[in-house]
UniProtKB/TrEMBL annotation:
Molecular function as annotated in GO: kinase activity
Domain Signal transduction histidine kinase subgroup 3 dimerisation and phosphoacceptor, first and last residues per copy: 199-265
Transmembrane regions: 54-72, 79-95, 101-117, 124-143, 149-169
Listed Polar residues bias regions: 418-427
Enzyme class: transferase
Span of domain DUF7134: 27-163
UniProtKB keywords: ATP-binding, Kinase, Membrane, Nucleotide-binding, Phosphoprotein, Transferase, Transmembrane, Transmembrane helix, Two-component regulatory system
Residue span, Histidine kinase/HSP90-like ATPase domain: 311-399
Keyword Transmembrane helix among record annotations: yes
Reactions listed under catalytic activity: ATP + protein L-histidine = ADP + protein N-phospho-L-histidine
Name listed for the protein in its UniProt record: histidine kinase
Region ranges (Disordered): 404-427
Organism: Oerskovia merdavium
Length: 427
C-alpha cells in the first residue's frame, strides 16, 4: 500500500494554524462563553444519558446552569465568576444538599481568579470559598467536618487555586520576556539609527573642516594663476605655489582625519591607515581563523585616494568577517580594478535554503549599516542579497580621474607617469 502523501498533512496543519489564529482573535468573553457551554455539556451529559445512575434535582441543575453562566466573565471579571459559582454552590447545598454539579464550575472559577486576578483577590476568593462552602456542607448538610468528602472539597479548591497561580505566574514571566524583547529590539534599532546619524555627522563635519577651506584656496589660486599666466608669470608661479601648499596641507590633514575615523578597537598611534596593499596580510589573518578564502584580482591595482584606499580595505574586512561568522567556512573574494572604478565582491555559501541567508547575515545590522555609510561617503554603492544559496556583498567604488598623490611624488617635479607617457606617445 502506497504511503499517504505529505501534502494533505501540511494542508491540515495549515488549517489548524488558521483555526487557532481565528480562535485567539476572538474576544475573551466569546471564548469564555464557549468554554462555559463546554463545561455545562460535559457535566450535564451523564444526567441526561443515564439519569438512573446519576440522579439530579431541579435545584442542582439550576445551580449548574447559574455557575456555568458566571464563567462567561472568568477572565474579564474573575471575582464575579467566583461569586456567582459560590452562590450557586452554597444555595444548592443549603436547599437540597446536592451541590456536586455546581462544584465543577466553581473549581474553574477559583482557577481563573488565581490565574487572572491579583494575588490579594485570589487569596481572598480562595479563603472565602474554602470557609463558606464546607461550612454549609457541615452545618446544613450534616456532613462530618473531618470526613473524606469535606476534606476532598477543601483539597480540590486549594489545588485549583495553586494551579491557577502557577499558570498566572508563568504567563507573567512570558509576557515580561516578550516586553523586554520588544524593548530591546526598539533600543537596538534606535541605537543603530543613532550611531548612523553620529557617524554621518562626524564624517561630514570633519570633511568640511579639513577639506573645504583648502579646496576653496586651491580653486581661487588656480583661477588666479590661469588669469596671470601670460601677463604676470611670476605672480602665476606664486599662486601655483599656494595651490601646492594647500594640497599638501589637505593630504596631511586627511591623514589625521583617517585616524579619527578609525574603529574604536584600533590603536590610536601614528600607524598609516590600511589599504589595498595590506589586503594580503588581511587575507592571511582571516585564513588563520579557519575561513577558506579564494581570492581573485582582475586588472592592475593603482594608487588610490587615501579615503578610497581605506574604504576598499574596510569593505573586504567587513564582508569576510560576516562570511566567517555566518557562512559555512568558505568565501570567494573578487577585486576588479578598472580605469574608473574598483569593484569588490564577496560570495560565501550560507546554511539553510536559498533566501534565508539574508536575515541570518544581518545579525545586529550595525556592520552592514556602517559599511553602507562608509561606501556612500565616497560616492559608491552596495548590493547585498542571496544568490543560489550564497550571500553576496558587492561594492562598487568610483575612482577619480586624477587621483590624489603624495607631496613628494615625482609628478610634482615635472616627471611624467609611465602609464601617461606611454599613452601620449605619438606613432
Amino acid at each position: 500500500m502506497d504511503p499517504a502523501p505529505s501534502r494533505p498533512t501540511g494542508t491540515s496543519r495549515a488549517r489548524v494554524a488558521r483555526a487557532t489564529a481565528r480562535w485567539r482573535g476572538l474576544p475573551p468573553p466569546v471564548r469564555d462563553a464557549v468554554g462555559a457551554v463546554v463545561v455545562l455539556v460535559v457535566l450535564a451529559t451523564p444526567q441526561v444519558v443515564a439519569p438512573e445512575r446519576y440522579p439530579s434535582t431541579v435545584v442542582s441543575v439550576v445551580a449548574l446552569v447559574v455557575a456555568c453562566g458566571g464563567l462567561v466573565w472568568r477572565r474579564t471579571n474573575p471575582l464575579l465568576a467566583v461569586g456567582v459559582a459560590l452562590v450557586a454552590m452554597v444555595g444548592s447545598a443549603a436547599i437540597d444538599a446536592d451541590s456536586s454539579l455546581a462544584f465543577g464550575p466553581g473549581l474553574v472559577a477559583i482557577y481563573s481568579v488565581a490565574a487572572y486576578a491579583g494575588r490579594r483577590e485570589a487569596v481572598l476568593a480562595t479563603l472565602a470559598t474554602v470557609v463558606a462552602y464546607p461550612a454549609v456542607l457541615v452545618l446544613v448538610g450534616g456532613l462530618d467536618p473531618t470526613g473524606s468528602y469535606v476534606v476532598l472539597v477543601v483539597v480540590l479548591i486549594v489545588l485549583a487555586a495553586a494551579l491557577g497561580a502557577a499558570i498566572g505566574a508563568q504567563r507573567a514571566v512570558v509576557s515580561s520576556a516578550r516586553d523586554r524583547a520588544a524593548r530591546a529590539e526598539e533600543s537596538r534599532e534606535a541605537e543603530a539609527a543613532r550611531r548612523v546619524t553620529q557617524e554621518r555627522l562626524r564624517i561630514a563635519r570633519e570633511l568640511h573642516d579639513v577639506v573645504a577651506h583648502h579646496v576653496a584656496v586651491i580653486s581661487v589660486q588656480a583661477g588666479a594663476a590661469e588669469a596671470l599666466f601670460d601677463k604676470r608669470p611670476d605672480m602665476a608661479r606664486e599662486a601655483i605655489g599656494h595651490v601646492r601648499d594647500a594640497g599638501e596641507r589637505v593630504l596631511s590633514e586627511m591623514s589625521s582625519l583617517l585616524h579619527l575615523l578609525r574603529d574604536d578597537d584600533e590603536p590610536g598611534d601614528a600607524t598609516p591607515a590600511p589599504g589595498v596593499a595590506d589586503l594580503p596580510r588581511l587575507l592571511d589573518e582571516v585564513r588563520s581563523t579557519g575561513l577558506e578564502v579564494v581570492e581573485r584580482t582582475t586588472g592592475a591595482p593603482r594608487r588610490l585616494p587615501p579615503v578610497l584606499d581605506l574604504t576598499v580595505y574596510r569593505v573586504v574586512q567587513e564582508a569576510l568577517t560576516n562570511a566567517h561568522r555566518h557562512g559555512t567556512g568558505r568565501a570567494d573574494l573578487s577585486v576588479v580594478h578598472s580605469e574608473g572604478s574598483v569593484v569588490v565582491e564577496v560570495v560565501n555559501p550560507v546554511p539553510g535554503r536559498p533566501g534565508q541567508g539574508g536575515a541570518a547575515l544581518h545579525g545586529s545590522g550595525l556592520g552592514l549599516v556602517g559599511l553602507r555609510e562608509r561606501v556612500a561617503a565616497v560616492g559608491g554603492s552596495v548590493e547585498t542579497g542571496s544568490r543560489d544559496g550564497s550571500w553576496v556583498v558587492r561594492v562598487l567604488l568610483p575612482v577619480p580621474a586624477v587621483p590624489l598623490v603624495p607631496a613628494d611624488d615625482p609628478a610634482r617635479s615635472g616627471a611624467t607617469d609611465p602609464a601617461q607617457s606611454t599613452s601620449q606617445e605619438a606613432p
